[in-house]
Amino acid sequence: MKHTSTYTTQMDAARRGILTPELQAVALKEHISEQHLMQLVAEGKVVICANKKHTCLSPEGIGSMLRTKINVNLGISRDCKDYNIEMQKVMSAVRMGAEAIMDLSSHGNTRPFRQKLTAECPVMIGTVPVYDSVIHYQRDLATLTAKDFIDVIRMHAEDGVDFVTVHCGITRKTIEQIRTHNRKMNIVSRGGSLVFAWMSMTGEENPFYEYFDEILDICEEYDVTLSLGDACRPGCLADATDVCQIEELVRLGELTKRAWAHNVQVMIEGPGHMPMNQIAANMEIQKTLCMGAPFYVLGPLVTDIAPGYDHITGAIGGAIAAMNGASFLCYVTPAEHLALPNVEDVKQGIIASKIAAHAADIAKGIPGAKDIDDRMADARRALDWDAQFACALDPETAKQIRNSRRPEDDHSDTCSMCGKFCAVRSINKALAGEYIDIL
Amino acid sequence: MKHTSTYTTQMDAARRGILTPELQAVALKEHISEQHLMQLVAEGKVVICANKKHTCLSPEGIGSMLRTKINVNLGISRDCKDYNIEMQKVMSAVRMGAEAIMDLSSHGNTRPFRQKLTAECPVMIGTVPVYDSVIHYQRDLATLTAKDFIDVIRMHAEDGVDFVTVHCGITRKTIEQIRTHNRKMNIVSRGGSLVFAWMSMTGEENPFYEYFDEILDICEEYDVTLSLGDACRPGCLADATDVCQIEELVRLGELTKRAWAHNVQVMIEGPGHMPMNQIAANMEIQKTLCMGAPFYVLGPLVTDIAPGYDHITGAIGGAIAAMNGASFLCYVTPAEHLALPNVEDVKQGIIASKIAAHAADIAKGIPGAKDIDDRMADARRALDWDAQFACALDPETAKQIRNSRRPEDDHSDTCSMCGKFCAVRSINKALAGEYIDIL
User: Fold this and answer.
1) Which of residues A344, A364, A384 is at a domain's end?
2) Subunit contact A439:B339, Cβ cutoff 8 A
3) Does A105 lie in the same domain as A26?
4) pLDDT at A2
5) Which CATH number is A272's domain given?
């Protein structure tokens, strides 16, 4: 039973003690009491991104005391304009357990693809409306008005998008700061760079900052969660945790308060590229400056020198970030910094992110997180390969590797890594008092 | 100029203030003063694994204040007995920057391959002599004597092996402990399981523990570094940091003292499978119990459920371990738990380990570690692709990904990820006061 008439957003409902179907569903998934979850949503520490128009959504909560969620970026672009390939990536991402998909389409007729997503896809859908502005109007950036940008946000809200990234934390002051601070990478946020470019060309203030209240009205009406974008997220280790990044975070904290005053749900977007030793401190700073609003991180990538392997640099940073308080990981694929990811890159990116999220959930002590690892250990001790595959994050790949290189004399109980030298086999025999043949 | 007549081991030389050519070479590589390095070697906090017979060695130091080193496991086995394929893996590992290779051969005529390695290979060579015992004598495990095992260590020392793993930390008491403690995975160390199996079948004490002094004599004579194996390293998250693991570590600390009294260099081997939140504590415990002896870790793998992707679970754990004090990472390949790694698996394992080691070195503040990341950032800001590839850990893969999917209108300055939406391009134009065309 929905009570859409009696509340605006999930935050509004939680603050008024109204139990929404979405909150009930999330509480069930997370093994948390409805009362506790309601309090977290009321305080802004958990968001339930659920646009009222996205009716096929299977809702999820995002917050540091819940399971860590992952997001997959997809979308039509000039260099990959095949809708079918993008839908194939979408369905495979959903199958592999992504909880969110951001449609970053930047080419062609973007609306039907976005509408198809919110009509058919059970996971949270996010967008970055500023990307779509240039495309939607088919006018060059400098010719767009503040109202044009806001109207695109409204269109995305009407289309059922659950969360939108808005780069409202940079202002005209940021232009000077970037000029004088001599960052190595200046601004690497794609949306942030468009806002920066527009401000530079027009001489006007950031429309997402100036008209923030209008954005809040739209978000409140449809229950769109605001994902406050970090235009100044560090694009290399040298820029990490610098004054540009932290000053923007301060501003995002101020905007969070304004959003919460309108019952609008908020996530904060975060780094980026960052040396490992700075990650925990960054999570703490975000928690205090943004009063516990969920932290949505891209990476962090813990070194700059691994193009082709940034799903690994991102998994290292993401795992540490999530262990220390981040609640939402944006996947990074092996193609990052190099090219558009293909279907295989998307898969590799998802698996790496899921490893990071799961490892962090175990480290954080999320109830039940380690159960599947315990079942895997039991299966390994028993040398029960079917049971091992059943616990594997990617059973097909595991099966394929083992079966492509079986032991020569095909002891079905061992693998070709050790053959009769298998430690598990030896110990099982020793504990059973059996003779142990190795040769 | 070598002073082989005037000292036994590198530790002996350092303690007597003798500057060895190996110590000089390492000091130069690590940008550390000879005096400081000599003190660390004298105290056992750095080892220079350099068998006097391994004359083609380019020496490296291992210790937490030096660059993190990585090891690659290879070797002839029943299921991969092609010496040429193994040598191909060796040469590719050396090219990719592995600092050590462990020859874990467990089939056929192992000696010529081992001798070829120490005759031709400039990196540290390690072995696990207990594997070779069964193979060398071609007799079943239960028929071997304590003397047989020790004789194989001597043979490896004579062959020029720089470090040997010896599982001397388990005793007959461990058999009872494993029986009663109900670990999920009991013993997963291959060498440890052989020792355990031999003790179970013969009723005798662990020969590597009982005849530890004879092993020290051999190590002192050839300057073989002892790598004290952790038979009880956790094989799943559930067994991590349990009494079996920690009690063995206590014993390894005692044996470290005995080795140091003979001027024998020592490393300690460590976990294994471990939840992320336990890693830092484990590094601290090892430092105190083993008085700063270098920690050589396998993983740790931060979840059990990712067969096919354990190079990633190992990179996450290894990076955190090295940041917190581990100094030597054993690579883990995607084939771990499933099959013998093939050439591609070896490559993936090496890259993942190098990412972990490098990220940790940056986090630890190893002087100069971040320089190449800074050069990469400069190349990215300039959209200078050749300079980017020159800084990449794996330039060929990076090049291949970019070139396989170039932007349609082939702006040579961007990539197909963003095309004209490229943030770097927009900001460069904005800062130059240029018009920014996006469409």
Assistant:
1) A364
2) no
3) no
4) 47
5) 3.20.20.540
- Express each pLDDT in A161-185 by its tens digit: 999 999 999 999 999 999 999 999 9
Least confident window among A70-84, A86-100, A419-433, B195-209: A70-84
Residue with tokens 């891209």: A298
Statement to judge: residues A200 and A241 lie in one domain: yes
**Boundary of a domain, candidates A364, A380, A403:** A364
DSSP strands (E only) in B299-390: 328-330
- Judge contact between A355 and B269, C-beta under 8 A: no
Q: Letter for the amino acid at B96?
A: M
A325, A354, B132 from B359: Cα distances, Å: 21, 21, 35
What's the total number of domains in chain B? 3
Whether residues A38 and A92 share a domain: the answer is no
Residues 404-423 of B with CB under 8 A from A: 404-409, 415-423
* pLDDT range class, residue A288, cuts 50, 70, 90: very high
**Cβ-based neighbours of A417, under 8 Å, separated by 6 or more:** B335, B336, B337, B338, B339, B340, B341
Give the distance from residue B124's alpha carbon to the nearest chain A alpha carbon, in angstroms: 23
Taken in order A421, A423, A425, A431, the sign of the CA dihedral is positive
d(CA B29, CA B59): 9
Residues of B in contact with A135 (CB under 8 A): 439
Q: pLDDT at position A410, please?
A: 60
The H or E element spanning position B131 is helix B129-137
* Residue A353 belongs to domain spanning: 69-364
Q: Is the pTM of this model over 0.95?
A: yes
Q: How far is B3 from chain A (nearest CA, A)?
A: 41
Cβ–Cβ of B277/A186 closer than 8 Å? no
In B28-107, at which residue ranges do the beta strands (DSSP E only) sit? 47-48, 61-62, 69-74, 100-103
* B164, containing H or E segment: strand B163-166
Given a cut of 70, whether residue A411 has pLDDT beyond it is no
For residue A408, the chain B residues in CB contact (below 8 A) are 78-79
**Is A315 part of any domain?**
yes
Task: Select from A33, A25, A218 the least CA-distant residue to A122.
Answer: A25
Number of A:B CB contacts under 8 A?
396
pLDDT band at B2 (very low <50, low <70, confident <90, very high): very low
Q: How far is CA B308 from CA B301, B314, B336, in A?
A: 13, 12, 7
Task: Give the type of residue at A62.
Answer: I
